[in-house]
Design brief:
The structure holds 2 protein chains of 2 kinds.
Chain A: H1 5-27, H2 36-54, H3 56-62, H4 65-88, H5 104-159
Helix pairs in contact in A: 1-2, 2-3, 2-5, 4-5
Chain B: H1 15-32, H2 38-64, E1 67-70, E2 81-84, H3 86-113, H4 119-138, H5 142-160, H6 167-197, H7 202-212, H8 216-232, H9 241-248, H10 251-276, H11 282-285, H12 288-308, H13 313-334, H14 336-368, H15 379-382, H16 384-398, H17 404-417, H18 420-450, H19 464-482, H20 485-499
Antiparallel strand pairs in B: 1-2
The chains are: A mainly alpha, B mainly alpha.
């Protein structure tokens, strides 16, 4: 955890807007620049910033690793699920037109919105997973180093009587 | 874009998509299954479904000709087309069949070699790898090949590194570097072709390449594609990742990958060399498949020779794989219907032979706990069924008559003999390489049967879940060696369709 006041206050101010901007890029992606990939990365950046400022443990208690690994799989399922749904509706895999029986254009709109949400979910979750893994390694290495130092101390203790 | 036809769901019409979609949807579901043996049972079920789809597709192609499927309702060449013809239906059947037969075997191997809390991820990676390989095979779109190649490669890195052996991590990293290099080369090749023709659909590429074929860009594209794909199937001298990868990964991964991954890459080579660059006069003088011939010959000679000097059973088999890849590429390089038939039939024959050998090696590893050849002393007495299967599959590796290995070499030598003096030399070298195979298989036989087992501990026969798939494949080695109707006929039909000859 970073003790300096400025980054802590700034992060507290910025994180809600980063997350909101992520959602905007996600759902406005079919009208303006954006889409699932960019939105996922922006959303994950918000969480990663939180972890950088307030510490990995607190971030992990908010966004648990179990939830993240669930979301990785869920995003892919949303994407492929749309394809399966269109097949069940009698069209080809990912033929979004079939999603709305009256207006194919409306169906296409809906289809791209849902699959992009799936992409965004998986990308955000994967980014967070990668960060957790690397940041977690640092903690493990530090613990190992601490153990080594303890061992070294013990050895010195045992050696000293000789 | 075609309008959404609300004709209701049709299973048969959607089979080409389902071939890839079923394992793709199953992989994330697999990560949710945390209970004991749940991921394994689910993966087995999914594998059975994909095998059924592949078999049905092959039947449809053999009776009704090429199947084309428009992804998302976008008509080719703009949209992504899934295109099933004789050759890729055959490869689909090999890949899904090996996965189906390797999974029952994987149960005990994975229990022993992969940490329990990683099982759901292991089987998810297995299904993704299967999905990627089936996707590479079934798609008719050059860029889509690259996408699925990445899916299968990324999951392969994970599978290779999933064991407890820390050396697997370096092996997987080595493959990651070389595999990424290969994938990048393939992407550059596809990109150059796209710049020159404005299309990514493989059939459309072949049509439009004619007028621009005599340009540096297209020649560079062909070179990048060939080198990139050769890296993926570990053709000598780009084979460095393979021995370590197969040696240190869990046994089931060795079985699955040795029988499928390299075969799929060879299919991609066939697809680009014959379907895309096949009809182009500018390539007639400088045939890239023929250029690969010297490398193929060196591959089978070096592979067999190095295999003799290995002290680790899995590493020995991995080096023998490099030699066998040499035979396949030699068949393709010799060209003509006979050469291609030899190459394609060896895809199938080597898949079942090498899968059986890796299965036997993995079963021995489960019981003995070591792959060092000296530790296998007397294994023929303590594990008689496993060792016998190993020896029989080894005969197939050598190419003894009545085995599938003989069929492959027979057609390879037939094809070689049509090429005059060079052909005779190649045929002689194939025979020499087979004799080298006799030596390395004999080394195992000698240790297994003519040395006394170590008395300090009991070694039991392999469990039934390993013996059944092992013996199914071993019997397959002999069944398809005697009854060549299926494998050779399909391979010949595939060779003819690649060369554009109507039978």
């Amino acid at each position: 955890m970073i003790e300096h006041l400025v980054p802590r206050i700034l992060a507290k101010l910025l994180i809600p807007f980063i997350l909101l901007f992520g959602l905007y890029v996600q759902f406005h992606g079919d009208f303006g620049p954006g889409g699932g990939f960019q939105a996922g990365v922006i959303f994950a950046a918000g969480i990663i910033l939180y972890a950088l400022i307030y510490g990995l443990d607190r971030a992990r208690s908010v966004v648990t690793p179990g939830l993240v690994s669930f979301l990785v799989a869920l995003g892919l399922l949303i994407y492929a699920g749309v394809g399966v749904a269109t097949m069940l509706l009698g069209a080809e895999f990912l033929n979004y037109g079939a999603l709305d029986s009256h207006d194919p254009v409306h169906g296409q709109h809906l289809g791209i919105l849902i699959i992009e949400f799936g992409v965004g979910t998986t990308v955000a979750a994967v980014m967070i997973t990668i960060f957790y893994q690397f940041a977690g390694r640092l903690k493990i290495t530090r613990e190992l180093e601490a153990d080594d130092e303890d061992d070294a101390d013990e050895e010195q203790v045992t050696e000293s009587p000789r | 874009m075609s309008t959404a036809a609300n004709a209701g769901f049709s299973l048969l019409a959607n089979l080409p998509a389902l071939q890839v979609v079923v394992p793709m949807v199953a992989a994330p579901i697999c990560t949710f299954l945390r209970f004991r043996n749940g991921p394994w049972a689910f993966a087995l079920l999914v594998s059975a479904a994909t095998f059924w789809i592949a078999a049905t597709l092959l039947m449809q192609v053999l009776s009704g000709g090429v199947i084309s499927y428009e992804m998302g309702g976008w008509a080719p060449p703009v949209g992504i087309e899934y295109r099933v013809d004789e050759i890729n239906a055959f490869v689909l059947l090999i890949v899904s069949g090996i996965s189906l037969i390797a999974l029952p075997y994987a149960l005990r191997s994975v229990e022993r070699e992969v940490p329990r809390d990683k099982h759901h991820l292991f089987y998810a990676a297995w299904l993704l790898c299967l999905c990627g390989m089936l996707g590479i095979t079934i798609t008719g779109d050059a860029f889509n090949i690259f996408v699925f190649l990445e899916i299968s490669s990324l999951s392969t890195y994970m599978l290779l590194a999933s064991g407890r052996d820390p050396r697997a991590l370096t092996a997987a990293f080595q493959y990651l570097v070389l595999g990424t290099l290969g994938a990048t080369f393939i992407l550059i090749g596809v990109g150059l072709l796209y710049i020159m023709t404005g299309t990514l659909n493989i059939a459309d590429l072949a049509d439009r390449l004619g007028p621009v074929s005599d340009t540096t860009s297209v020649r560079a594209a062909a070179a990048f594609l060939t080198v990139g794909i050769a890296l993926k199937f570990a053709l000598f001298p780009a084979h460095f990742w393979l021995p370590n990868g197969y040696t240190y990964s869990p046994s089931a991964v060795g079985v699955f990958l040795s029988a499928t991954a390299t075969k799929v890459s060879i299919y991609v080579l066939l697809r680009f060399q014959f379907t895309v660059f096949g009809d182009i006069p500018a390539f007639a003088e400088l045939d890239f498949a023929t250029l690969l011939l010297p490398f193929a010959v060196v591959a089978f000679l070096v592979g067999s020779t190095v295999a003799i000097f290995q002290t680790d059973l899995k590493r020995l088999l991995a080096w023998s794989s490099i030699a066998q890849i040499g035979y396949m590429v030699a068949g393709i390089g010799l060209g003509g219907v006979d050469g291609l038939t030899a190459g394609i039939v060896h895809l199938f024959n080597h898949a079942i032979t090498k899968a059986a050998l890796f299965m036997a090696a993995g079963a021995i590893f489960l019981r003995v706990g070591s792959m060092h050849i000296d530790k296998l002393a007397g294994i023929g007495k303590t594990m008689p069924l496993t060792t016998l299967a190993f020896v029989l599959a080894g005969l197939s590796l050598i190419g003894v008559p009545t085995t599938v290995g003989f069929i492959s070499k027979w057609y390879l030598i037939l094809a070689a003999l049509q090429h005059g003096a060079i052909g005779y030399a190649i045929a002689a070298l194939v025979l020499a390489s087979s004799l080298l195979a006799v030596i390395y298989v004999w080394r195992i036989v000698e240790v297994a049967y003519f040395r006394e087992p170590a008395t300090d501990r009991e070694v039991a026969e392999a469990p039934l879940s390993m013996l059944l798939p092992l013996w199914a494949l071993t019997i397959g080695c002999f069944y398809f060696g005697l009854e060549t109707g299926y494998s050779v006929d399909i391979a010949r039909a595939a060779a003819q369709s690649l060369l554009g000859i109507t039978p």
